[in-house]
């Protein structure tokens, strides 16, 4: 649950921090892809509703 909270905070903070910066469009297009890959990796390595989730 802690990692899920961190991901949610990052998703909320990133849009507020990015607008002042002028990143290229391809970089903006790559952010959701990387986040989705990270979420899929976390979902595979740490299955939800398991004993590992309760430990953290």
Characterise the protein shown here:
- The longest helix has 21 residues, at 25-45.
- The protein has three helices and no strands.
- The protein starts with a helix and ends with a helix.
- The mean pLDDT is 70.
- Helices cover 75% and strands 0% of the residues.
- With 56 residues, the protein is mainly alpha-helical.
The count of β-strands is 0
Strand content: under 5%
Task: Label the overall shape.
Answer: flat
- Approximately how much helix is present in the residues? over 70%
Low-confidence stretches: none
Average predicted confidence as pLDDT:
70
Radius of gyration, in angstroms, nearest whole number: 14 Å
Transmembrane segments: 25-44
Keywords: Membrane, Signal, Transmembrane, Transmembrane helix
Protein name: Transmembrane protein
Signal peptide: 1-19
């Amino acid at each position: 649950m802690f990692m899920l909270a961190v991901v949610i905070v990052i998703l909320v903070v990133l849009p507020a921090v990015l607008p002042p910066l002028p990143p290229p469009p391809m970089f903006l297009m790559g952010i959701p892809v990387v986040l989705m890959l990270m979420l899929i990796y976390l979902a595979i390595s740490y299955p939800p509703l398991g004993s590992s989730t309760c430990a953290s």
